[in-house]
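Subgroup meeting minutes
Present: P.N., E.W., G.H.
Scribe: E.W.

1. P.N. recapped why we're keeping a running log of single-chain structure predictions: easier to compare across weeks, and new members can see raw inputs and outputs side by side.
2. G.H. added today's entry (75 aa).
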Amino acid sequence: MAEKQDYFITDNRIVNIILAIIPITAWIFGFITRFKEGKIVAGIIRVIPFAGMVIWIVDLVLMILKGRIWRLLNI
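Output recorded in log:
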């Protein structure tokens, strides 16, 4: 199991992949997850239109391959 809960609802990888496939849920849950971790700048970057789309694609690939979202910034 992951030490950090991605998309904060469940540790179930299949559910997280389904949530990552849907763009709206991926953006909202990614934003909330980063704010919950205290990473305000990273949360704001997720809602910027072009940057959010690129991060969504990377999140989707990483969620399928590793079961984790991309943590771009640690600030």
